[in-house]
């Protein structure tokens, strides 16, 4: 009699979820179901390029069902995880329910507005593909409004951009906006010629940009952004955003319609997982094998978990793509071994990088300990991001778009695309 297949449900199709199922693909002892609320995988580090019109969504996204073709032991279910029923080995989705022998939660993180309701309702987040398209539509619509208004005060608000959060996404967005202002906006909008109403602000409560990176990377990024015309305000955070006014914690304010929020993330909380399981940032606490504390057959990998068993990271790992990928691969390998042979997870920190603009980037390499900036780091960033995309289709399209942007200092995706039942005036209320 054949031994029944072990049913593994992986909730979340980001870096962690995809790498886990790839580790177990075509292993005949496992029946795997990958669950995600979207029917596509996307590459978060390049979302900002979709948001600014340098890439189209299909350059950094790929349908799950096409990706899973030929992986005969893996199935896909579209749906959002709502509730876990551990006593029944079952999960409830927005589209039904699934039974499991083993559950892996890899749902990532969501935007953290730190309890500021006005920011949550009025700012533009940068976490999902929908966020990126919303940002592109909104900023382009506001450029159009600015081009026809005769009210200079209103024009200044429409053209001023405040980016909250000076991590990689905030730095990359600020640099992109600065280059667009210099090379693109005046070509497309001659109405702005002779005006000095646009401004780009980068705000963070920390005392440095790119806080997790080296001091050399921080200084180079700070100096480069300043030269590009970005106004950097460190040691202060956003307290409120309403009535076209960003209020900062130091008591000052900035008049703008555009607050881009990249200031933090928090993990999701699911009914059925006890409150005491959640640690800092609402991350589920796991052991050295990524098993959630208090459970025998439920695991968490990536941004949604916190693991303090790694001697090099006693306070938990950073919420980075490489952590998610390595945890998923380690767990996948362990699933193929007898339980007494499992290997604990130890993070191999390969370094960090960020791009600021054309020929401007920083890269910290951990082993050997090296620092690059300028054109070398720029090429390293381009190479790493291209090879990290999911499919050859993605790699080719992204590389082509970058080559066009490089030679023309321009991009082609500055189009306002919205559902057919949405009226043009609704764009500011997306």
Describe this structure in words.
The chain has 430 residues and is α/β, with parallel strands linked by helices. Helices cover 31% and strands 25% of the residues. The protein has eleven helices and 25 strands. It has a five-stranded parallel sheet with strand order 5-2-1-9-21, covered by helices on one side. α7 (168-188) links the parallel β12 (160-164) and β13. α1 (15-23) packs parallel to α9 (321-335) and α5 runs antiparallel to α6 (152-159). It is globular, with a radius of gyration of 23 Å.
Quick take:
The protein has 430 residues and is of the alpha/beta class. Helix content is 31%, strand content 25%. The protein has helices at residues 15-23, 47-51, 64-67, 117-122, 129-148, 152-159, 168-188, 215-227, 321-335, 375-388, 392-408; strands spanning 6-11, 30-36, 40-42, 61-63, 74-78, 81-85, 90-93, 96-99, 102-105, 109-111, 124-125, 160-164, 199-204, 230-234, 238-242, 245-248, 253-255, 258-261, 265-267, 284-286, 298-300, 305-307, 351-357, 360-365, 370-373.
């Amino acid at each position: 009699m054949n031994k029944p297949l072990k049913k593994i449900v992986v909730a979340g199709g980001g870096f962690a979820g995809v790498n886990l199922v790839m580790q177990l693909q075509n292993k005949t002892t496992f029946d795997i179901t990958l669950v995600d609320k979207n029917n596509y995988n996307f590459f978060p580090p390049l979302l900002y390029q979709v948001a600014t019109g340098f890439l189209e969504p299909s350059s950094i996204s790929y349908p799950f069902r096409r990706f899973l073709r030929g992986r005969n032991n893996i199935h896909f279910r579209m749906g959002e995880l709502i509730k876990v029923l551990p006593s029944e080995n079952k999960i409830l989705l927005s589209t039904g329910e699934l039974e499991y022998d083993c559950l892996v939660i890899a749902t990532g993180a969501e935007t953290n507005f730190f309890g500021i309701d006005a920011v949550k309702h009025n700012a533009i987040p940068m976490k999902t593909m929908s966020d990126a398209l919303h940002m592109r539509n909104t900023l382009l619509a506001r450029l159009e409004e600015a081009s026809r208004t005769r009210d200079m005060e209103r024009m200044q608000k429409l053209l001023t951009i405040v980016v909250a959060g000076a991590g990689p996404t905030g730095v990359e967005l600020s640099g992109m906006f600065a280059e667009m202002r210099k090379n693109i906006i005046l070509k497309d909008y001659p109405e702005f010629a002779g005006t000095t109403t646009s401004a780009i602000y980068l705000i963070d409560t920390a005392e440095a940009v790119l806080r997790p990176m080296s001091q050399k990377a921080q200084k180079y990024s700070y100096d480069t952004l300043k030269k590009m015309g970005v106004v950097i305000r460190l040691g202060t955070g956003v307290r409120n955003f309403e009535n076209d006014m960003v209020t900062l914690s130091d008591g000052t304010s900035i008049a703008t319609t555009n607050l881009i929020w990249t200031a933090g993330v928090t993990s999701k909380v699911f009914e059925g997982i006890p409150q005491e399981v959640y640690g800092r940032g609402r991350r589920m606490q796991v052991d050295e094998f990524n098993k959630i504390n208090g459970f025998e057959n439920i695991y968490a990998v990536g941004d949604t978990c916190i693991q303090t068993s790694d001697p090099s990271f006693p306070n938990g790992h950073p919420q980075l793509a490489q952590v998610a990928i390595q945890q998923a691969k380690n767990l996948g390998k362990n699933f193929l071994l007898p339980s007494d042979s499992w290997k604990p997870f130890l993070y191999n920190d390969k370094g960090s990088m960020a791009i600021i603009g054309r020929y401007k980037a920083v890269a910290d390499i951990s082993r050997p300990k090296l620092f690059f900036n300028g054109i070398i780091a720029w090429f390293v960033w381009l190479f790493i991001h291209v090879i990290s995309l999911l499919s050859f289709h993605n790699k080719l399209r992204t590389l082509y778009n970058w080559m066009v942007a490089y030679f023309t200092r321009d991009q082609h995706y500055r189009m306002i695309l919205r559902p057919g039942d949405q009226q043009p005036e609704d764009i500011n209320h997306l």
